[in-house]
Amino acid sequence: MATPEVVWPETQEERDALWPEIERCIGYSFRDASIRDWAMMSRTWVDQVGGRDLYNDNKTFEWLGDAVIYLHVTRRILEHDISTPTGSGTPQRADLVSNVSLAQIGLDIGLAPLLLLGPGEMGNNWSSGWVAFMAAAVEALVGAVWVDAANADGDHEPRLATDVVCRAILP
Length: 171
Known about the structure:
By secondary structure, this protein is mostly helical. The chain is built from nine helices and no strands.
């Protein structure tokens, strides 16, 4: 995959203006904008702007999103064919949740300009690491939907996050 050209927004207002299209693409509107913004904060960006005293990075959302994606992709594979042996279902799941697949989803929905990356990640490391950055952002986005929907619904397994995974990753 070729390195995508990204025009990074300079202000929060410019970033906020990009969210409605992404929310349309994923079929979910965040109730709490701080959760969606937090999901885009990389560790290097947090360290650059004042550290953990001011912000948390997106690793928790990324970790949660990874689990949500794996769970729902596995469930969909089994719904399609409950007799799918583990050995044949695992490669199918791995293809669907690979960094390359998730990065492409991130590009398709326009997520790249919303990533809050440190200067090294935005500069030289973007060309070599963008696939991993985008995949992590998609996982964090799914985790953020899970948390935002749970906060609104009081539901520990929000159907909205499941729907986002199914629409974005399992068309």
